[in-house]
Amino acid sequence: MSQREQWSSKLGFILAAAGSAIGLGAIWKFPYIAGQNGGGAFFLIFIVFTLLLGLPLLLAEFTIGRSTQDHAIASYRKIAPGTKWHWIGILGMVTCFILLSFYSVIGGWIIIYLFKTIKGDLNGLSSAQYADVFGATISNPTISLIVQFLFMLITILVVAKGVQKGIEQASKIMMPALFILFILLVIRAVTLDGAMEGVTFLLQPDFSKVTSKTILEAMGQSFFTLSVGVSVMVTYSSYLPKSQSLPRSAISIVGMNLVIVLLAGLAIFPAVFAMGLEPGAGPVLLFNVLPTVFSHLPFGMLFFIAFLILFLFAALTSAFSMLEIIVSVISKGNPNGRKKWSWIIGLAIFAFGIPSALSYGVLGDIKLFGKTFFDLMDYTVSNILMPLGSLLIAIFVPLKMKKTALYEELQKGSNLKKGLFETWFFLLRYVAPLLIIAVMLDVLGVW
């Protein structure tokens, strides 16, 4: 077998892993959920849960992948041979396959909006007209399928080139560009008349608006925004050399994710409040509200183009990781089979995603369990598969990996203090499972 690939540098791994984490959850989902849950208080609770839940789970996946240096299924087999625990890896593959099938649909929407904005088709419309444009765009079967395929094509081409030459090189360009564009957008947004009301909304907690729903949604958001629970980070960390510090890498990725979430809020809410619009507009915030905001600003559509570009970068870097986990398992880490399997699996994901792409048009009236195919896939992944995967990982690591071996693995490349290790182990073994179960019970309507 050919030698297994590795990241060429610490920075390459951190940017790729951060790119996996920073996607639709951070830029598209966080602003509208925060807008619906009072802003500042939600943001603060989200940060707490990211540190208590997301960080321990992220580090747990790192220890699995780096200690075994193998793909997602083989990693669990090596740690717990002769058991069924490798089904966590299979669950991660299935979850990523389904997730990318409808994620690519939203990626396609970003591409068509970018194209329309560059053409000037979105200039000077009213809020109602933007809503009509969005509805007409996503209901057009030809356009929806073409842009979904284009998004998957870019993903396939990058993953087919490999870990270093594909994913790492793309992430090294896209992630710094994302930060730079975001900072420019934030500077523009906070200098608008009335923008400080939006800054206050995001950064000043109003705990009178906090309900049990707010707490549970913040918990769920912290958990989904780091790409934990699907063994993507098991796969990415398996390409790491033993000299890399896992704790520092995890902290860096969580820190970058929180910064991007903050920048997303500072780019969106000041502009929304300055225009007198509704911050709790829901999932259409990006595609309906933001064009209205930017179209009324000097050079506003140029800033909207910049926003769409960074949004596309974030979506693509997450898509790379979803395809990579499946390709790495099927090709068994052999670079020679990567290109073929990237195409086969990528095209299969596109085909499976066709009903999702058509869910707002010709298949809009077809419902399964009361949901469109797109909504059913989203619900299945977000509310069942990802929480279940995270729960199993939180149970697996303390149960099947010896505590001394875990400490030794986390010590490699770092000087982790025993007290910090014990804190992480406690959070992973006791706190994370309870929080995850609480999220699952909530989304399943048990309470």
TrEMBL record:
<feature type="transmembrane region" description="Helical">
    <location>
        <begin position="420"/>
        <end position="441"/>
    </location>
</feature>
<keyword id="KW-0769">Symport</keyword>
<dbReference type="InterPro" id="IPR047218">
    <property type="entry name" value="YocR/YhdH-like"/>
</dbReference>
<feature type="transmembrane region" description="Helical">
    <location>
        <begin position="12"/>
        <end position="34"/>
    </location>
</feature>
<keyword id="KW-1133">Transmembrane helix</keyword>
<feature type="transmembrane region" description="Helical">
    <location>
        <begin position="143"/>
        <end position="163"/>
    </location>
</feature>
<dbReference type="InterPro" id="IPR000175">
    <property type="entry name" value="Na/ntran_symport"/>
</dbReference>
<feature type="transmembrane region" description="Helical">
    <location>
        <begin position="175"/>
        <end position="203"/>
    </location>
</feature>
<feature type="transmembrane region" description="Helical">
    <location>
        <begin position="253"/>
        <end position="277"/>
    </location>
</feature>
<feature type="transmembrane region" description="Helical">
    <location>
        <begin position="380"/>
        <end position="399"/>
    </location>
</feature>
<keyword id="KW-0472">Membrane</keyword>
<feature type="transmembrane region" description="Helical">
    <location>
        <begin position="341"/>
        <end position="360"/>
    </location>
</feature>
<protein>
    <recommendedName>
        <fullName>Transporter</fullName>
    </recommendedName>
</protein>
<keyword id="KW-0812">Transmembrane</keyword>
<dbReference type="Pfam" id="PF00209">
    <property type="entry name" value="SNF"/>
</dbReference>
<feature type="transmembrane region" description="Helical">
    <location>
        <begin position="297"/>
        <end position="320"/>
    </location>
</feature>
<dbReference type="GO" id="GO:0016020">
    <property type="term" value="C:membrane"/>
</dbReference>
<feature type="transmembrane region" description="Helical">
    <location>
        <begin position="85"/>
        <end position="115"/>
    </location>
</feature>
<dbReference type="InterPro" id="IPR037272">
    <property type="entry name" value="SNS_sf"/>
</dbReference>
<comment type="similarity">
    <text>Belongs to the sodium:neurotransmitter symporter (SNF) (TC 2.A.22) family.</text>
</comment>
<dbReference type="GO" id="GO:0015293">
    <property type="term" value="F:symporter activity"/>
</dbReference>
<keyword id="KW-0813">Transport</keyword>
<feature type="transmembrane region" description="Helical">
    <location>
        <begin position="223"/>
        <end position="241"/>
    </location>
</feature>
<feature type="transmembrane region" description="Helical">
    <location>
        <begin position="40"/>
        <end position="64"/>
    </location>
</feature>
